[in-house]
Amino acid sequence: MTHRYRPSLRAFTLAELLVVIGIIAVLAVLTSVSVQRIAKDARLAGATNAVIAQLGTARAIAIRDNASVIVTFRPVLVDPPIRDASDNVISPGNPQKGQVTEVVIGKATGRLVVLDTQSFETFGEQFVPVPGTAARRLARGIRVAGPADYGGTLPKWYVMPEFANAEVGRGFCVCFGPDGGLLTRNPRIPGNVQAAFEEGQPDSNSVTLVAPWFDIDQDGLAEAGVGAVTFPGTWSTYRDFQEEPLLGYCTMLAVYDYEDAVERGDPTEWQSSGSATVEPQLFKVFFDAYVPQFGDFIGFNRWTGVARAVDQ
User: How many Å apart are CA 36 and CA 257, to the nearest integer?
Assistant: First the structure.
């Protein structure tokens, strides 16, 4: 009589099942973290390439038109109000949809416009949008920073504000000259700027600030914004969407992820008032440390002005 062999069946114990489930859970978490990191890196890389492309367009326009051309970075609403030719609001927009960064190009008009009409100490070198050149919008949460002066009360990095968090930031730009090289001042403005403007002034106050000014609506008037702080030294401060601040010259840029910064910091420490003239100290301290560590950097050739991604 033939007997068939039957192997004994052994089930997993509860402990073994728990170990397997634990391993699967750990792998899932690690995979999720890796995917999120890759996605964030891709967002930064895509934004960096977009900024470099816009810089290349601006440089080409400067050479073509034999003019000074800037690239600047504006916080704008995703769904802004729409106005008619008489400045009447057609659509109120939706601030709840948040803000994004626009990379815009402006060309010099050759005009120096007084911004401070009380003491006549602050002038803007007027730049206006280049016709036919569209602004580029970066992905939600992606911001751009530029190195600032290392003395006085200015931060080490010009950082864009998040208006929904009541932040105060700075305006800045990259400026290309007619030969395509970078400019860090208007070469036509003499060292003694007071002599250039003294005639016709109502008093003898000295000119303390002359810088690029992007007249986005091309009305020839500086928009002081809700805070309406107009005395010298505050025109470079961004406090709301309406403002057209003076712009600091930059020779390097950093692209960073504000949403990642929020995860690593405390946004309640970055808030300020609508009429603030400087950024809160904790805001400056955090981003002075965050931008160099987590930003993607854009540098420029010293002689040609060509932009490229660089290592930190």
Answer: 13
Strands 209-214 and 122-129: parallel
Give Rg (Cα) of the chain. 26
pTM, entire model: 0.79
Cα distances from 57 to residues 54, 136, 151, 205, 297, in angstroms, run 5, 11, 33, 40, 19
58-71 burial, b at 16+ Cβ within 10 Å, e below that, comes to bbebbbeeebbbbb
Q: What is the distance between the terminal CA atoms of the chain, rounded to a whole angstrom?
A: 81
**How confident is the prediction along the chain (312 residues), in pLDDT tens digits per residue?**
555 656 655 666 777 777 778 788 777 776 665 556 676 778 888 999 999 999 999 999 999 999 999 999 999 988 877 777 676 777 777 777 889 999 999 999 988 887 766 666 777 889 999 999 999 999 999 999 999 865 555 568 989 999 899 998 888 999 999 999 999 888 777 655 545 544 444 444 555 667 898 998 888 877 665 444 444 455 777 888 888 888 989 999 999 999 999 999 999 999 987 667 778 889 999 999 999 999 999 999 988 999 999 876
Q: Where are the beta strands (DSSP E) in 36-178?
A: 69-77, 82-83, 89-91, 99-114, 122-129, 136-137, 142-147, 157-159, 169-170, 172-176
CB burial of residue 267 (10 Å; 0-12, 13-18, 19+): middle
Contact 80, 89 (CB under 8 A): no
* Nearest-angstrom CA–CA distance, 163 and 80: 14
